[in-house]
Each structure stands twice: as structure tokens, then as C-alpha cells.
Amino acid sequence: MICKKRLNKHNKIKNKQIFKHISKYIHCFHFIIMNLTVKSFSIIKLVLQIKFGGFINHMKIQKNKRTRFKLGITTLSMILSVNLFLSGCLYKEVVADKQFTANSIPEVSEPMTSQPENSELSQSADEELQPQYKEDFDWVWVPGVSKTSSSSQTPSKSPSGGSSNEDDEDVIVDVSGKKISDIGFGFYHLGPDSLGLSNNGEMMMASDYVNTIISSPWVLPMAAKYKVRVWIDVRHIYDTIVRLASMGADSTAWHTTFDNIEKSVIDSGYEKSCLGWYIDEPTDMEAVKIISKYAQKYGRRFFVMFMVNTVSPRSYEGFKQEKNHTNRDYTQYLTDVGFDCYWGVKSNRTFFDNIIADMHATCPEDAYVWYVPNTYASKSAANSSRADLLEGAKFRIDDLNEMYALLKAEKKPGGLLCFSYDFDDDGEYIMGINVLNKKTNNGWKTLLDECVKIGREICSGKMGK
Q1: Which of 82, 146, 340, 439 could form a disulfide with 156 if both were Cys (CB 3.0 to 4.6 A apart)?
Q2: Angle at 261 between CA 260 and CA 267, to 5 degrees
Q3: For residue 303, what is the enclosing H or E element?
């Protein structure tokens, strides 16, 4: 049932939309009149020069001058009057827009649990308008998913949360009880960007198929709200250790930085949502040992995602020094490990088997193991044909399921972290699945649907062997 405050807000929004349409015409006419003003000055000047600049009858010139001068002044006066009128309209528009913005902030009101007997508002109108924010942590926003009153109900739209109707409004979905698994599923690049957490990031955390992200301590309250666990990225501390070592320095100043991060986790009040610490693709294993050993004092997990040539040099050569390769001494303080390789498991099975064997041999036996399915493409894929897009999606769907099978075979499965979702980088010339879908009218919808299906299975604790 719609309360009056929400109905008033809806009417104000419609009025503002109508006013904006009118203002477009005002802007257009104002632009035309301004141009006419400039043109008029030029034309009058030209007329005066042509008509009155020659050596013709003096009296006729004086008479014509007076007549045309009066006509020019009258024309200019009319043009300037119209200009002033339109300027006034634009000023009123700006003032009205500011007043609308100030008055349209939604007021907090208790939801109406029953419909008044004399109400003429329909249930469909109630579904059209939804509150922008609700403090109850058991309810979250998921675009395009049908409204449910309990976690046992099933969304009626597509598994990816999409809808065939582009006009569908965002609605509230109860996901309590759906994220119960300790095994993780998520995407890279759902965390903070340069301006904070993107709307896409919050929407994905609010879903019932993402329970793990890589981010920063400030996102912990939101993660707790949506039952998501957070790996805190400490790559910058690792980089500091490597830099100091390269200079021959033995500074421990980074200890304070790490301690402050731990303090911010505790001060957030949601430290239970922090899984631990994360480093992506380090190449100096001595630095990995130093930082992971120091982090033991916090009592949290430590996750490193390795490059293939650091965990299995026989599979992919590159680094020659011992400190660039994993061994049980360097990795002894790690609790979670993984490697990223996007070549396709099915077509490179022996290659993957060797990497997995080497990782198990050089990392702790009791470490949780994570896999990274491929959900990215070259930026040139934005111009691909529909057939090529579907072929690329099928390759990745097969690879996703192959890695899911590898995860199930692990004694201690950590989870799946798909690379990537919102990544859009000109330097590496690649983009994540969400960016590609936006540029290709959901060219990889089939892949996203498969991610959602597997994500829901994992998060709900229904992953079988």
C-alpha cells in the first residue's frame, strides 16, 4: 500500500519530468533568439553601410536614415525584450529545480501493513513505487527480481536477475538464509573504485549468488548487511616490503600500516565479515613469507593468488631466482592459495594437472584452494558478431564448469572467484563480463546465467561432489 508521502514524491517526479520537457523548448528558443540578436546587429550594420555609405542625394539619405534607424531600434528592442523574458524563464526554472530537489528528499515513515478501507490506490501502483532505502538488514535491493516475503520463495525472472521487461522497477528481496556456505563464490572488481563502491558492486553483493569479494575495511558494514565475506587487499604493504628490500633497508614502518588496517577492521564493528588478507600475483616469495608471518598476530586467514610461473615453473617458465618460486618454507603461513590461468581446462588438461600438483607440493597441505574462471574478453569483442559472442561465451561456460569440477575434487575447497565483472582497462585492453554485456546487448548473458546458477548452488550450501 502506498503512503501519501511516497505518492506525493511520485507526483513531484512526474511534474519535474514534464517541466524538463518544457524547459528544453525554452532553451532552444533562447538559443535561436540569441543568434538572431547577433545576426540583427550585423544585418543593420551592413544595411547602413550599403544604403547610406554612397555619394547619393543628401536629403534622401537623411530621410531614409531616420526611417531605417527607427525601424532598427524597434527591432532590436523587440529582440532584447524576448531575450529578457526567456532569461527570466530560465532563472525561474533553475530556482524551481533547486526547490524541487530540496523538497523531494524522502521522509522516513513506517510502512503501512494494511490497506485503508476507502483506498482507491491499486496494488499494481504499490508495486510501481518502491522505497529507495530500508534499514532492515534482512531486506535488500535486487533489480529485476520479483518481490518475495520469505527466503523460500523463488524469483520469477531469469537466473541472472534480468528481466524481459525493460520497464520493471527494482524490488525488495529477502535473501536471509540463502547464504549459508563457507565455500565462496564471487567476481573480481566488485569492490571500491576511485569514487567508492559502484552500484553494480552493491547490487551483486545483495544477490543470493555472491558471498565473497576482495575489497577494503570500509565496505565491511555493507558486506555484513548482505552476508558477504571480505578479503582485505594488502598488496600495497607487500609492495612496500619489496621496495625496502631492493634498497637494502630493513624498515618495519609497514607494521604500523598493517596494524592500522586491523584496527579499522575491528572498529568497523563487523570484523566477523572479514575473511582475512589477500595479495594478488606476488613475485617475491620472501616478502610473502615476511608479511604472512607478521599477520599471524591477527588470527585471520591469508590468501595469495599466484601466477603460474611462480607456482609451477616447469609448466610456464619466466622467473629464474629461487625467491620467485613457491616452496613450503615461503608459503607456510598461508591458509588459502590459488593460481590464475585462462587457457581452458578441457583443452589443456595435462597442463592444469601439473600446475595443481605443483601448487599442492609447494603450499601447505591444509590450505584452502581457489580457482579463477574466465569471465573477461578483449575489448575488441565489443564489435564481434552475435555468433562469435555466443561461441566465446560457450568456451567460458565449459571452462567455468571444468573449474567447478576441480573445486569439488579438492579436499579443502576455497571457492570460485571469476575474473572479472566490472573491469574495463585500456592498458590491458580487456573488459569484464558486465562491461561486455552493456556494450553488446547482453552478448554473454548465457555465461552470466551459468555463473549465477553455480553461485547460487555454492552459496546455498548445495555444492555436491
Answers
A1: 146
A2: 85
A3: strand 301-306
In one-letter notation, the amino acid at residue 107 is E
Q: Rounded to an integer, what distance in angstroms lies between the CA atom of residue 340 and that of residue 343?
A: 10
- Pair (316, 409) in one structural domain: yes
Cis ω on the peptide bond leading into residue 420 (within 30° of 0)? yes
Cα 112 to Cα 114: distance, rounded to the nearest angstrom: 6
What is the grid cell recorded at 347? 583443452
1 C-beta neighbours (distance < 10 Å), count: 15
**CA angle, 102 then 104 then 108, to 5°:** 110
Last residue of a domain, one of 102, 132, 166: 102
What Å distances lie between residue 97 and 94, 119, 256, 316, CA to CA?
A: 5, 31, 49, 61
Cβ(433)–Cβ(375) below 8 Å: yes
- Picking from 126, 157, 127, the residue whose alpha carbon sits closest to that of residue 2 is 126
Q: Are residues 347 and 243 in the same domain?
A: yes
C-alpha cell at 388: 562469435
- What is the per-residue pLDDT for 164? 35
Examine residue 122 and state whether it is found in any structural domain, yes or no: no
- Taking the mean position of all CA atoms in its chain, how far away is CA 422? 6
Neighbours of 221 (CB within 10 A): 13
394 lies in some domain: yes
154 assigned to some structural domain: no
Domain count, the chain: 2
Percent of the chain with pLDDT over 90: 54
Give the HSE-up count for residue 400: Cα atoms under 13 Å, Cβ half-sphere.
26
Last residue of a domain, one of 102, 130, 157: 102
Count CA atoms closer than 13 A to 36's CA, side-chain side: 15
Range picked from 46-60, 95-109, 207-221 for highest mean pLDDT: 207-221
Looking at residue 417, which CATH number applies to its domain?
3.20.20.80
For the record, the C-alpha cell of 63 comes out as 530621410
- What domain range is 47 assigned to? 9-102
Give me the pLDDT at residue 179, please: 93
Instruction: Indicate whether 317 and 207 sit together in one domain.
Output: yes
Extract the C-alpha cell encoding 321.
631466482
Residue 235 sits in the same domain as residue 349: yes
In a domain, 37, yes or no: yes
Q: pLDDT digits over 429-443, tens only?
A: 999 999 999 999 999
Instruction: Using pLDDT thresholds of 50, 70 and 90, give the confidence band for residue 35.
Output: low
